[in-house]
Amino acid sequence: MRWEIKKFSDLTITELYALLHLRSEVFVVEQNCPYLDMDFADQKALHLMGYDANNQLAAYTRLFDKGIKFAEASIGRVVTAPFARGKGAGRELMEESLRQLYQQFGEQPVRIGAQQYLEQFYGSLGFKTVSDTYMEDGIPHVEMLK
């Protein structure tokens, strides 16, 4: 996977369209969750994009320094394209997200709002559950901290 990280203002129109398309494809259509994905936090995030050998956007996250989404630094909108699943792309995405977050903002605690069914996956990356289950957009979530 080839990785690029950019501030919102440095994204090209094509990159922005691709990442919003991927987020909508998975979070809205696939998960049958009609919610407004564009929350005005994109402008405050660093955008990590992973491209496959065909230069297709295969994986994406947005990274935040502490004090923006949570008191701690955070990773959000974690998504892999359907064509990239089952090949380790999700793990590679999270490992690169943590590397980039530490490189950009310094090594520090990281909090995520994780879909509950992925709790074991995030646990394998060193995250610990620190909240009760809560509903977000009709999907059970937990907060996790690394």
Secondary-structure topology with pairs:
Layout: E1 2-7, H1 13-30, E2 46-51, E3 57-64, E4 73-80, H2 89-105, E5 110-115, H3 119-123, E6 128-129, E7 134-136, E8 139-145
Parallel strand pairs: 4-5
Antiparallel strand pairs: 1-2, 2-3, 3-4, 5-8, 6-8, 7-8
InterPro entries: Acyl_CoA_acyltransferase, GNAT_dom
Organism: Chitinophaga dinghuensis
Protein name: ElaA protein
Give a brief rundown of this model.
The protein has 146 residues and is of the alpha+beta class. It has three helices and eight strands, in the order βαβββαβαβββ. Strands 1, 2, 3, 4, 5, 6, 7 and 8 form an eight-stranded mixed sheet that branches.
Task: Describe what this molecule looks like in 3D.
- With 146 residues, the protein is α+β, with helices and mostly antiparallel strands.
- The protein has a single domain (2-145), classed as Aminopeptidase (3-Layer(aba) Sandwich), CATH 3.40.630.
- The chain is 27% helix and 32% strand.
- The protein contains three helices and eight strands; from the N terminus they run βαβββαβαβββ.
- Strands 1, 2, 3, 4, 5, 6, 7 and 8 form an eight-stranded mixed β-sheet that branches.
- β7 (134-136) and β8 form a beta hairpin.
- The longest helix has 18 residues, at 13-30.
- InterPro entries: Acyl_CoA_acyltransferase, GNAT_dom.
- One of its GO terms (molecular function) is acyltransferase activity, transferring groups other than amino-acyl groups.
- Residues 6-146 form the N-acetyltransferase domain.
